Amino acid sequence: MRTLEAGRASIGTTVEPLMAAILAWLFLDQVLTAWGVAGLVVLVVGVAGAYAVRSPAPRER
Predict the structure, then answer these.
(1) CA separation (Å) from 48 to 10, 26, 34, 53?
(2) pTM for this entry
(3) Residue 1: is its pLDDT beyond 50?
(4) Which domain, by its residues, includes 11?
């Protein structure tokens, strides 16, 4: 099993509001305002950008 760095795992947890909003929209007929959609877009772009940044290679000793 591959391991995930703690920093990347914590970034991944930031998608919880996204999932909550989508599930509320689908199952509870909640309305997403333009500000809510904009916030979700910013969240997705931020998480994608954080995952796209590669960690520096570990130094050899």
Answers:
(1) 13, 24, 21, 9
(2) 0.62
(3) no
(4) 6-52
